[in-house]
Amino acid sequence: MTKQVVFTDAAPAAVGPYSQAIIASGGKTVFLSGQIGLEPATGELVSENFEGQVRQAFANLEAVVKEAGANLGDIVKLTLFLTDLSRFASANAIMAELIPQPFPARSTIGVASLPKGAQFEVEAILNF
């Protein structure tokens, strides 16, 4: 699979660790369901701490990605859901640490609530 970053000055530049668009060619496409910060063994939130939930959600996402036969570098689109958009910078920093460049395309959505009282959810599309 090859990923080509799309960038144009005719649209706003990315405001974080993501690309305006990604062209993915070849391979297979996998649509991953959203992951929240649940511990797999207990099914309970890892903590009330936002950053802890973000890290666990990405760990859960990575486990599904690996089971699909891919890696985090194969993500072409991410969608982040936050119950508090004031924590956007924190989610950005963790994502930039965990997701390799070139960064995938991404949307971030503020939501009123998430399952089990989670503060963060992430879903992805892979192409590899």
From TrEMBL:
Pfam families found in the cross-reference section: Ribonuc_L-PSP (PF01042)
GO molecular function, one term: deaminase activity
GO cellular component terms, A-Z: cytosol
NCBIfam families: Rid family detoxifying hydrolase
Family the entry assigns: Belongs to the RutC family.
Protein name as it appears in the record: Reactive intermediate/imine deaminase
Annotated organism of origin: Alcaligenes pakistanensis
Organism lineage: Bacteria, Pseudomonadati, Pseudomonadota, Betaproteobacteria, Burkholderiales
